[in-house]
Design a protein that fits this description.
This protein is an alpha/beta fold and 334 residues long. The protein contains 7 helices and 15 strands. The strands form 3 sheets. Strands 3, 4, 5, 6, 7, 14 and 15 form a 7-stranded mixed sheet that branches. A 6-stranded parallel sheet has the order 10-9-8-11-12-13, sandwiched between helices. The longest helix has 14 residues, at 129-142. Belongs to the zinc-containing alcohol dehydrogenase family.
């Protein structure tokens, strides 16, 4: 395939995906042509799009930065792409870059839409940057303090990244709570303690919820101590959610707060923009602890089948990384 032709994954809700071919425009003076080495599926968001479970009111807010097509119809969606610059200003050629671009073999993007991958971050791990940015924003929203007892309910990618970041704070004790006992190895690798919901510690100073389930949210509320905050990171799409507010929610004066990566946390918005926040997220990907989140890599050609698998509730994959074999050579390395 020539550099002027690319293949991309299109989601066709509900529950269909296909690879399509497209022609690339010639890069302008302030644009780069990038050959993708790795991408990753953001399971929570992309499977909701794939399922057709995005509410109509959220069609525009749910747009990925370089999305093509419009919901509820077919869309080219995704936002975790690492590649090598093949054409553009000389200073950029040969660099690994991260871009909030969908799953596509080659693409053209403005210079100001990409960030160089730091030399101490393996390109294959850099695909975590978008999810890491969500975790960073969550910690800014929550403001954990020295010595806090923190619980994270839901040991998916976002929850695990939050737990890993919190575990590095001085004096902070982190418990990662999940119904899947196999996630205990994730907690151990990240420096946290694992617990099943019925064995989790109560009276916590701060609780993050990231399981995308009503049961998980109610567990998070149950774990929170008096006047504690529960930070909601899940996005339920059009799925209804029942929240148990008839128990200790009022008597313990709990706070349930949403955290969402679309805007910079008000705690940092006066000094940080999206670009600076994403650059920080990339730097944090230097931590080798986070390699534990990756499943066995999948090939780009298998993406339609991979999406079908990830959409099944029985699938326990954490971060699904995609390898672009048709673009791989010695410049695309792990």
């Amino acid at each position: 395939m020539t550099a002027d032709i690319a293949r991309a994954l299109w989601l066709v809700p509900p529950r269909h995906a296909e690879l399509r071919t497209e022609f690339l425009a010639t890069p302008g003076s302030d644009e780069l042509r990038i050959r993708t080495c790795f991408s990753a599926i953001s399971r929570g968001t992309e499977t909701l799009v794939y399922d057709g479970a995005v509410p109509e009111s959220e069609y525009q807010r749910m747009r990925a930065p370089f999305q093509a097509g419009e919901l509820p119809g077919p869309v080219k969606h995704g936002y975790a792409n690492v590649g090598v610059v093949e054409a553009g200003p000389a200073a950029w050629r040969g660099r690994y870059v991260f871009c909030l671009y969908p799953h596509q073999t080659h693409y053209v993007a403005p210079v100001d839409a990409v960030i160089s991958v730091p030399v101490n971050v393996p390109p294959a791990r850099a695909v975590l940057a978008a999810n890491m940015e969500t975790a960073v924003n969550a910690l800014w929203d929550a403001g954990p303090r020295i010595g806090d007892r923190v619980s994270v309910v839901g040991a998916g990618v976002i929850g695990s990244l939050v737990a890993g970041l919190c575990a590095r704070l001085p004096g902070v004790e982190v418990e990662l709570v999940d119904i899947d006992s196999e996630r205990a190895r994730i907690a151990t690798a990240l420096g946290a303690v694992f617990a099943a919901p019925d064995r989790a510690q109560r009276g916590r100073d701060l609780v993050f919820h990231a399981s995308a389930s009503a049961a998980g949210l109610n567990t998070a509320l149950d774990l929170a101590g008096t006047e504690a905050e529960v930070i909601e990171l899940s996005w339920f799409g059009s799925h209804p959610t029942t929240v148990a507010l008839g128990g200790a929610f009022h008597s313990q004066r709990l706070t349930l707060r949403a955290s969402q990566v679309g805007t910079v946390s008000p705690a940092r918005a006066a000094r940080w923009d999206h670009g600076r926040r994403l650059a920080l997220a990339l730097e944090l990907c230097a931590d080798p602890r986070f390699d534990v989140l990756f499943a066995v890599d999948a090939a780009f050609d298998d993406l339609p089948a991979v999406m079908a698998r990830l959409a099944e509730s029985t699938d326990r994959t954490l971060c699904q990384r995609i390898v672009y074999s048709e673009t791989q050579d010695s410049s695309c390395s792990t």
